[in-house]
Amino acid sequence: MADVAGVEQRWATVRRWGPYAMLGVGTALTSATMDVIGMGQAERYATAVLVGFVLLWQLWWDRRSARTRADRSPVSACYYLVRAAATFALSWLNPFFAFLAAVGYFDADRLLPPRLLKPGLLVTAVTIAGSQSGGLPPHGPLGWGVFGALLGVHLGMIAVFGHLTAREEERTRTQAATIAELERTNTALQQALDENAALHAQLLVQAREAGVADERRRLAAEIHDTLAQGLTGIIAQLQVVANTHTRDADLAREHTDRALALARHSLGEARRSVHNLSPVALADDGLPGALHKTVTEWGERTGVQAAFTVTGTAEPLHDEVAATLLRIAQEALSNTARHAAADRAGVTLSYMGDEVTLDIRDDGRGFDPLVLPARTRTGGFGLDGMRARAERIAGSLTVEAEPGQGTAVSARVPLVRHDG
What is the pLDDT of residues 386-404, one digit of tens each? Predict the structure, then answer.
């Protein structure tokens, strides 16, 4: 870009001082050749007058163009044509003034409108060809023949350079349009980058808020699945103690021990929930052992005949997968104890290739699945909580129930092995 500006500045200098330099060269050569050419006294006076006129005309134009840019205006065309006519007259008096006529080749396209460009260049070409052929007017057939040949050469050169100039102008216009389009594209791209940065910041805020909300849901689900169930069991055991301690001290002591065990278990779960650790039951056993222990204790506590079965080859599961399945089993059994009034319940853990399936079924009163949404609006973490847990690890949960025909809950999750 700096080089282009430098070229334009040099061209401006040529246009500014070129006419003075060529007028000076023509005047100097004319002064030296007046006697050789045979210029008379009248011709010499006419030459002096025309040189002075051209000088004043050029000075006027320079002052005017310095104040007002008038490229390709009626005033610029008048300036060019008057200068061309004066130069033609000077070349008629002495051929060496054709140096000044040559300036017309350099500024015709800048000063003349399109309809006057060819006539203006023709005047310049006639002036220079006449000078090169020995001066105007040509003498004899040979002089006219030489003048015609030289004029043809000049006109051909004008046509060639005019074509090249047109091509260059077209290329310049294309480049300018391309640069403008690139600038618009860059502006749009910058706007898009700014919008993306703002969107990225917004997404970070939303992700942070979503993380906070997810952590709150996790803690709520953990409290519901562990502390709430443990406290419910403690209350149930203490109610038995309150109803039986006056009649059977051993039975009361047994229920008190169970209440204490549940309280310790709930305390451990509370601590682990705060630190986002695995359930207490998984601390010492794998998932099959933890499920077997959970089902057995649940059956003893509720009086429901409960059975646990493992199918397939047991594999160590990722902590999150094992904790999710254990929580789902605990919640399903809790629902059975609270709502089903079942006599029997069964839990089956199945290892099937790249999936693990957990099925919890009972022979209780069941329910109508169509009524389930109304029950979940009360704020509990039952089936919705189990489904959310399964979906969090790319799994799914289905429920099959019918009034009077029991309930079956099935969780299917990917088999992700323990990374240790």
Answer: 898 899 888 999 999 989 8
Has residue 275 got a pLDDT over 60?
A: no
* In a domain? residue 382: yes
Query: In sequence order, what DSSP letters do the residues of 101-156 get, joined into one string?
Result: HTTHHHHHHHHS-HHHHHHHHHHHHHHHHHHHTTSSSP-HHHHHHHHHHHHHHHHH
Which residues on neighbouring strands pair with residue 414, listed in sequence order?
Answer: 355
Taking only the tens place, the pLDDT of each residue in 233-250 is 666 666 666 665 556 667
- What is the C-alpha to C-alpha distance for residues 165 and 121, in angstroms, rounded to an integer? 14
Question: How many whole angstroms separate alpha carbon 124 and alpha carbon 109?
Answer: 13
**244 falls within a domain:** no
- Distances in whole angstroms, Cα of residue 225 to Cα of each of 26, 202, 261, 374: 109, 34, 17, 21
What's the domain range around 412? 282-420
* pTM exceeds 0.70: no
Q: Given 118, 137, 156, which residue is the final one in a domain?
A: 137
54: number of Cβ within 10 Å? 23
Does position 161 have pLDDT exceeding 60, yes or no?
A: yes
Going by pLDDT thresholds of 50, 70 and 90, the confidence category of residue 351 is very high
Q: Which of 115, 137, 159 is the last residue of a domain?
A: 137
Residue 237 inside a domain? The answer is: no
Predicted local confidence at residue 215, as pLDDT = 57
**DSSP letter string, 298-363:** HHHHH--EEEEEEES---PBPHHHHHHHHHHHHHHHHHIIIII--SEEEEEEEEETTEEEEEEEE-
CATH number at residue 287: 3.30.565.10
Residues 6+ apart with CB under 8 A from 322: 278, 282, 286, 287, 290
The total of structural domains in the chain comes to 2
Residue 258 covered by a domain: no
pLDDT of residue 266: 66
